[in-house]
What we know:
The protein is built from seven helices and two strands. By secondary structure, it is mainly α. The protein has a two-stranded antiparallel ribbon with strand order 1-2. The radius of gyration is 18 Å and the shape is globular. The mean pLDDT is 92.
Amino acid sequence: MKTINQNSKWGANSASFWMTLLVAAGIIFVGIRFIVNPHAGAIGFGINFSSDNDIAFGRIKGIRDIFSGLVLLPLLFFEMRRATAWVFTAAIIIPATDCLIVLATNGPSDTQHLLIHGLTALYMAVTSFLLFRNKTQVIY
């Protein structure tokens, strides 16, 4: 007879927890930077403002980035692994699309910013895999 023991405890003792928290904190920082210093935020993103009128769009992006990071914090705090996994996985669309936007705007020669967005999407995909990974132990 085999018994399946599911390890449902997930939280601060898990690498995927800390990997997710790192992304949440990072995007909150990026959002704050876009609000406090929109020009620096735009340069870091990879697309400079064409005029001072674009500053408002930088601040709009900033508040959305802050929200994107904050939405994960209660899920992490209450150790809701599945909900975290679904929200985090859906959010991969953001850096993937950012990478495509930088590519369409700056071309393939802007490797620095393409790598920043592309590797962020890859990091998030690996983290999502770890979040969804079902740790089961079969005992005979």
